[in-house]
Amino acid sequence: MGKRVVKELTYDAPLEDVAAMLTDPAFRERVLERMQVLRGSATVASGSDGTVVTIDQVQSASGLPSFATKLVGDEIRIHQVEAWRTPEHADVEVTIPGKPGEMAGTATLTEAAGRTTERVDLEVTVRLPLVGGKIEGLVADMLGKALDKEHETGVAWLAGR
């Protein structure tokens, strides 16, 4: 079944600036720092079919309920790929390598009156009997907090341009 996460993040900047920020590896590295990941990296590859942002991160599992840490261990590795086919649209896939869960969906940018809204729409799926729904809820909460941290970092990033 899965759990859907929809989040809208608004920036006081034109779409072109927000798109440039979201595809800047230095910005993505700053977000990882602000999220206090254990380890992480961000890479960006541009080609004829758009720009692909790849983010690898390892987060501590401390603070998760015991049933979740039994499944993931002390650390959680997260692999995120955003395929920006246009400056306004990306297909997003997030996996937890070696674990039975993923997120997939889109990120879209729209501009109105010089302000840009990023709409992230992802479906969280964990294929585990009995506890899958609980873990989907935990992952959705983690995703929401990560997006809030990205937004907070983005507002500061754009203010400093």
**Beta-strand content:** 35-45%
Task: Report the principal-axis shape.
Answer: globular
The assigned structural class equals alpha+beta
- Helix percent reads 25-40%
Distance between the termini: 42 Å
What is the count of DSSP helices, taking H or I runs of 4+ residues?
Answer: 4
CATH topology: Alpha-D-Glucose-1,6-Bisphosphate, Chain A, domain 4
Q: Cα-atom Rg, whole angstroms?
A: 16 Å
Structural description of this entry:
This protein has one domain (3-159): START domain (Alpha-D-Glucose-1,6-Bisphosphate, Chain A, domain 4), CATH 3.30.530. 34% of the residues lie in helices and 45% in strands. The longest helix is centred in the C-terminal third of the chain and has 28 residues, at 132-159. It is an alpha+beta fold. Helix 2 (25-35) packs across helix 4.
Short description:
By secondary structure, the protein is α+β, with helices and mostly antiparallel strands.
List the helices and strands and how they pair.
Layout: E1 3-11, H1 15-22, H2 25-35, E2 39-47, E3 50-60, H3 66-72, E4 75-86, E5 89-95, E6 101-112, E7 115-126, H4 132-159
Antiparallel strand pairs: 1-7, 2-3, 3-4, 4-5, 5-6, 6-7
Helix pairs in contact: 2-4
